[in-house]
Design goal:
Layout lengths: L7 H23 L10 H13 L2 H25 L10 H20 L4 H16 L2 E2 L2 E2 L6 H15 L6 H28 L5 H25 L1
Antiparallel strand pairs: 1-2
Length: about 220
C-alpha cells in the first residue's frame, strides 16, 4: 500500500521527467514526420494499418520506432538491473545517455532523417524503464493513459465514500501536470526554434542527472 508521501526527489524527479517526455512527444508530432515518440500505442496501430495498406516505408519506420524504444528499455534494465525505484542506483548514467541521444536526434531531425525519431524514441525507452515502481505505485513518465485511469478510479471511489491512497494520487497528479506542461513548452519552443528546442529536454536530463548525483552523494554521506 502507498500510504506515505513520496520523497521530494521522487516527486520532483518524476515531474521533471514527465515534462521532458511531454516536450519530446510534441516535437515529434509537430515535426516533418508527425510521429508519436514517447508512447507506442499509436505507432503499433500504424504498424497494423500499413501492414494492410502495404506502404513499406511507413511500416518499417513504425517498426523501428518501436524497436528503438524497446532497445532503450533493454539498456536501462541492463544498467539498473532492477525495476524498483531506489536511491543509490545509476540513474545518472541513464539520464546522461538520454541527453546524448536527444542531441544526436536534433542532428538527424534537421537533416530530414527518420533516424531522429529512432534516437528520440530510444531516449524515451531509457527514461520510461528507468523507474517503473515506487512503494506500490507504478510510475510511468512517458505516457499518461494509466495515470489518468488511476486518477479517474480514485475519484470514482472517493465519490462513493471509499478511501483512496492520497499520496499516490498526488504523485500521479505531479506526473500528469509535468507531462502537460512539457507539451506546452515543447509546442512553444518548436514554433520558435524548430528542432533545436530539443536542447531544452537534453539539458533538463543532464541537470536532473547532476541533481540526482548530488542528492545521492549527500544522502549517502548523511547515512554514513
Amino acid at each position: 500500500m502507498f500510504r506515505k508521501e513520496a520523497p521530494v526527489w521522487v516527486v520532483l524527479g518524476g515531474a521533471a521527467l514527465a515534462c521532458n517526455a511531454g516536450f519530446i512527444n510534441v516535437v515529434g508530432f509537430m515535426g516533418v514526420q508527425q510521429q508519436a515518440i514517447s508512447h507506442l500505442s499509436g505507432t503499433l496501430s500504424i504498424i497494423g494499418i500499413e501492414t494492410v495498406r502495404a506502404d513499406p516505408t511507413l511500416l518499417i519506420r513504425a517498426i523501428l520506432v518501436v524497436g528503438f524504444f524497446f532497445l532503450g528499455c533493454v539498456i536501462s534494465g541492463f544498467v539498473l538491473r532492477q525495476s524498483v525505484l531506489k536511491l543509490g542506483r545509476s540513474y545518472g548514467v541513464i539520464l546522461a545517455g538520454e541527453s546524448l541521444l536527444l542531441v544526436g536526434a536534433i542532428y538527424f531531425f534537421k537533416h530530414g532523417s527518420p533516424v531522429g525519431d529512432y534516437l528520440a524514441s530510444m531516449a524515451c525507452g531509457l527514461q520510461n524503464a528507468m523507474a517503473t515502481s515506487y512503494s506500490g505505485a507504478v510510475i510511468r513518465t512517458t505516457h499518461m493513459t494509466g495515470i489518468v485511469t488511476d486518477l479517474g478510479i480514485a475519484l470514482g471511489h472517493q465519490l462513493r465514500g471509499q478511501p483512496v491512497e492520497a499520496p499516490r494520487m498526488r504523485l500521479y497528479g505531479a506526473l500528469l501536470g509535468g507531462f502537460v506542461i512539457g507539451g506546452i513548452l515543447g509546442a512553444a519552443g518548436f514554433s520558435r526554434f524548430g528542432y533545436d528546442t530539443l536542447l531544452f529536454p537534453a539539458a533538463l536530463c543532464g541537470l536532473t542527472g547532476l541533481g540526482y548525483f548530488a542528492f545521492k552523494h549527500y544522502a549517502l554521506q548523511v547515512k554514513a
